[in-house]
From TrEMBL:
CDD domains: ABC_Carb_Solutes_like. This is ABC transporter ATP-binding protein. SMART domains: AAA. The keyword Transport applies. Keywords: ATP-binding, Cell membrane, Membrane, Nucleotide-binding, Transport.
Length: 358
């Protein structure tokens, strides 16, 4: 296992990039802990695969270095990096049994037969395929084959890292939850450094200790699921994480007050004068319908989404969502919306600004 350092890293697919816009991966510096479970999360085209390919050695970065522990691996081929990879689609040998598929990476390294047998048994138990070990892989469902791929990715104890590239794409929706949970416990048990690429926030948040949110070739925030929810560092994180995402309002910030089209909102903290495009962000969970406190709101519709209801409304000339707890009636006298002061984020040109005690 290894700590992974990305030093002054950037990548352009063009041979003569002219400016930042030509870089699929903008310059970044990060250290990812040994034994950490990381998810690379972001929408299509934001650079997740590019970054993963640089870490795995499939792609040589146009700038900067990749270190595993203290070793500079930037110029090393994938095979030299001692990593395991699980891809979007299963890679299994159809003519081999499940047992031989799982044992393959260990036999390849001429591990002791007793060790191989024990390890295969252990991994088979973890992926729920103990009873399938003597079956040929041919004819198994895509789910089962992908489980074998996951198991094979995890069978070696001595890898520097395990890289997963959208590994649950082919898995049936009801199996996804089970496999995600299994992966999490495999991480807890084996302690490998794991990097998991996905565009699905549920996958990222359930799997990772640290979620690395990417947007337009940049890491915009690296944090625990809680940090991403409570303090989104960038408006994209606010919008992308959460269901629905954060409400954002254009606002003029003056000291500890935000002026919106519908009225003023007290922020509880002071921001001086903030330059650029300024916005405030509030999660639907922290907006409350009131009978006069806050800014005027027009309720458009109420959606029942199981444990709570979701009110779609309009305030300050913009659409907003409000989570209404179970049991609270949404009556016509709820004319205003107020925001929990300590949950409001202030953004300047999309980046979160920290206030000071007002
Ligand atoms: N081989 C390539 N040559 C040129 N441009 C590329 C190449 N691969 C990716 N890109 C571009 O680099 C950017 C980042 O792509 P990348 O595949 O890393 O994103 P991603 O987040 O993994 O997206 P997805 O989830 O769709 O796979 C995109 O603009 C893409 O068009």
């Amino acid at each position: 296992m290894a700590r992974i350092t990305l030093q002054n890293l950037a990548h352009s697919y063009l041979s003569h990039p002219r400016g930042e816009a030509d870089f699929a991966l903008k310059q970044m510096d990060h250290v990812w802990d040994d034994g950490g479970a990381y998810a690379l999360l972001g929408s299509s085209g934001c650079g997740k695969t590019t970054l993963l390919n640089i870490i795995s050695g499939l792609l040589r970065p146009s700038q900067g270095r990749v270190l595993f522990g203290d070793r500079d691996v930037t110029g090393e081929e994938t095979a030299e990096r001692n990593i395991a990879q699980v891809f979007q689609f299963p890679v299994v040998y159809d003519t081999m049994t499940v047992r031989d598929n799982l044992a393959f990476p260990l036999k390849n390294r001429r591990m002791d037969a007793a060790y191989v047998a024990g390890r295969v048994q252990h991994v088979a138990r973890m992926i729920g395929m103990e009873d399938w070990l003597d079956r040929k892989a041919k004819g198994l469902t895509a789910d089962a084959k992908q489980k074998i791929s996951l198991g094979r990715g995890m069978v070696r104890e001595d890898v520097n890292a395990i890289l997963f590239d959208e590994p649950l794409t082919v898995i049936d929706p009801h199996m996804k939850w089970e496999l995600r949970t299994q992966l999490k416990s495999l991480h807890r048990e084996f302690g490998h450094t794991m990097i998991y690429v996905t565009h699905d926030q549920t996958e990222a948040l359930t799997f990772a200790d640290k979620v690395v949110v990417m947007y337009d070739g940049r890491v915009v925030q690296m944090g625990t699921p809680e940090e991403l929810f409570e303090k989104p560092a960038h408006t994209f994180v606010g919008y992308f994480i959460g269901s629905p995402g954060m409400n954002l309002f254009d606002a003029r910030i003056e000291g500890a007050r935000a002026h919106l089209a519908g009225g003023a909102v007290e922020l509880g903290r002071s921001y001086g004068s903030v330059a650029g495009r300024t916005q405030i962000g509030i999660r639907p969970e922290y907006a409350v319908l009131t009978r006069g406190e806050g800014i005027p709101v027009t309720i458009r519709r109420v959606e029942d989404v199981g444990r709570h209801r979701l009110v779609r409304a309009e305030a300050a000339g913009q659409a907003l969502s409000i989570v209404v707890p179970e049991g609270m009636p949404v009556s016509a006298d709820l004319t205003h919306v107020s925001f929990a002061q300590d949950r409001i984020s202030v953004y300047a040109d999309d980046w979160r600004v920290e206030g000071s005690a007002a």
